Amino acid sequence: MPAMQQVNDTELPFMKMHGLGNDFVIVDARAQAGAITPAMARGIGHRQFGVGFDQLAIIEAGETDAHLTFYNADGSTSAACGNATRCIARFLMNESGKSELNLTTERGALTARDSGDGLTSVNMGLPQLRWDEIPLAEEMDTLRLPVEGRPTATGMGNPHCTFFVDDAEAIPLDEFGARYENHPLYPERTNVQVAQVLGPDHIRMRVWERGVGITLASGSSSCATAVASARLGLTGRKVQIELDGGTIWIDWRDDGVWMTGPTCHVFSGTLTSEFLRSLG
Fold first, then answer.
1. Per-residue pLDDT for the chain (280 aa), expressed as one digit of tens each?
2. What are phi and psi of 227, to 5 degrees?
3. φ, ψ for residue 114, nearest 5 deg
4. Facing residues of 199 across strands?
5. Could you give phi then psi for residue 133, rounded to 5 degrees?
6. Is 169 a member of any domain?
7. What pTM does this model have?
8. For the chain, what is the domain count?
9. Range of the domain at 71
10. Residue 55 belongs to a domain
């Protein structure tokens, strides 16, 4: 983020949005001073002492329509957050009247489009398939990792580990996700998905996000799972994915992995100076 003075002695407006239950606090920093620190992100993300979120997203002015920065609930950063990008894109399209936007993140440049019927699409870019791009700790075949269950590794600007199972509901995801998030093959930790193929274009998926835990949905995880499934020949490159929070559509095209789904602006609020000072 650009260097700005920390906000701790004034109020801070924010929006609460979600994409399929994957929920976000979004701060529009284009017209206000102040920087979010990791400690602030952790405090705001606490579901009892703060607001609560899966990720916090910052909208900043840039050379494109906007630049986006993401924090996980534990205060760590993420280069990509697909559902938050869709939520912000919908907000910016409503604000500007545009039907297509160019956004930047640490992941790179992303295109967002209004897909009609309240749906928003984002091109999450080409998947990262080499071990050193994801990254993994050492050179290996990313299609079938040398791990029990033979998961597939994929990078979508953040690392993913996808297990294909017979019954996604039967996996104790709270234990399973925590174990593999910190697997030594992933030096930057990883998002963990358990996916059940229901048909040639249909997947049931549950997700554990690094730095967060179990979430109702994850856009980048959905992209990674669709890519992994297509690489393994389990589905085609265009799939419908059933998440705990609803349905998302993924299309792995030549120009990148397109993700389409609904968004919701739940409410807008203001973080008080008392609360912000308490975060240090």
1. 333 345 555 889 999 999 999 999 999 999 776 678 999 999 999 999 999 999 999 999 988 999 999 999 999 999 889 999 999 999 999 999 999 999 999 989 999 999 999 999 999 999 999 999 999 999 999 999 999 999 999 999 999 999 999 999 999 999 999 999 999 999 999 999 999 999 999 999 999 999 999 999 999 999 999 999 999 999 999 999 999 999 999 999 999 999 999 999 999 999 999 999 998 7
2. -65, -45
3. -80, 120
4. 202
5. -85, -30
6. yes
7. 0.92
8. 2
9. 12-124+263-278
10. yes
Inside any domain, residue 5: no
Residues 233 and 267 in one domain: no
* Residue 207 belongs to domain with CATH number: 3.10.310.10
Look at strands 238-243 and 202-209 and give their pairing: parallel
- CA 28 to CA 33: how far, in whole Å? 10
Burial class for 23, CB neighbours closer than 10 Å (0-12, 13-18, 19+): buried
Looking at the fold, whether 159 and 250 belong to one and the same domain comes out as yes
**Together in a domain, 64 and 119:** yes
Give a yes or no: residue 41 inside a domain.
yes
Contact 58, 27 (CB under 8 A): yes
Residue 154: alpha-carbon gap to chain centroid: 14
